[in-house]
Every structure is written in C-alpha cells, then in structure tokens.
Design a protein that fits this description.
With 177 residues, this protein is an alpha+beta fold. It has helices at 5-30, 63-68, 119-129, 132-153, and strands at residues 48-59, 77-87, 94-103. It is globular and about 50 Å long.
Length: 177
C-alpha cells in the first residue's frame, strides 16, 4: 500500500465498509433481507446468519500501469475469508460455511497495445473498471453467489434467480483413465 498511519486506517475502513455495503445490497436482492451490523455486535432473539470476514491479502497494484501497459502489469489482488454463522435464540452461534475468495484485475491489454486511436478511451475504461473497487464488488458477488447456490441446493425459496459462483478450475492430472 502507498499509505500509512491515519490514511491507511481510513482506507482500510472504507474498503471494509464498501464490501459490507455491496454484500448487504446483493444479499437482499438474491438471498434474503440483510443489514449491516457494527463489529462486535451481539445478534440475539432472531434466527439469522451472521457473516464475519477479513481481508487476507490486498494489493492495490498501479492504476497507471494497468491502464497503459495492462496484461497483468500493475494488477490488483484481493483475497478474503468470510465465515457464516447460524444464530438461533438460546443457542451458541454455529459455523455453517467458510467462503474464501481470490481475484484481481484482469490481464487485459492496456492503452499502449490498443493503438493511438483507442488510447484515451482505453485509459478511461481501464481506470474506471479495474482496481480494488471492482475487486470488492466481485468479492460481494462471489459470497452472495455461494450462499445463493447453497440455499438453492437445499430447495430454499430465493427472491431472484440462483447465482452460481465462479470457481478455480481443477488442474489436469497425468494419470491414465
């Protein structure tokens, strides 16, 4: 990070709040009504899911390098871990899922490789569609999609279509069939 002290603290708080806001909005649309609660809040008297999470890794990369060179140069990286707890009156919270996400800015070509005609439009496009804000929105989508898929498999009624999360592909094996 290119920040320190109070500036870093504000950045971390903003990133966490943005993820929570995106998550509440998507969960409300695709899973069930959701609300953001302050850290260390005790949820009582309800049947609910409580989602707690942390950023495992955040690398902001370089917007200038992403926009000009691209192809992964200057790329961002964001990894998160979310724990989903079932909260029921009179019972201890029970862990029902752990969701880990990883991703970053795409390895799309930058403006230099797009030619002179597309230089300015490409810089603007990449600057506004990549970076940690886009990574945060993607993370909220993946957590929501994982919960949506889990509920759909248990035949739960969902407010919208079932979302399916992207998953890392499996590696090919060299073993004979």
């Amino acid at each position: 990070m290119d920040r320190a002290g109070e500036e870093l603290v504000r950045f971390e708080e903003t990133l966490a709040n943005d993820l929570a806001d995106d998550l509440v909005q998507l969960l409300g649309k695709f899973v069930a009504p959701a609300e953001k609660v302050a850290a260390k809040t005790t949820v009582v008297g309800k049947n609910a899911w409580l989602i707690e999470g942390s950023f495992v890794r955040v690398n902001q990369g370089s917007r200038l390098l992403r926009a000009s060179v691209g192809l992964g140069v200057g790329g961002t990286k964001q990894e998160t871990r979310a724990s989903v707890f079932l909260i029921q009156p009179g019972k201890k919270p029970r862990l029902v899922a752990t969701i880990e996400t990883t991703g970053g800015s795409n390895a799309q070509p930058g403006a230099i490789l797009s030619g002179p005609v597309l230089l300015i439009p490409r810089v603007i496009f990449i600057s506004t569609t990549s970076g940690l804000s886009a990574d945060t929105r993607r993370t909220a989508r993946m957590i929501t999609a994982t919960l949506s898929e889990k509920l759909a498999k248990s035949n739960a009624s969902l407010p919208e279509r079932t979302l399916i999360p992207k998953r890392l592909g499996s590696l090919p094996t060299n073993s004979p069939p």
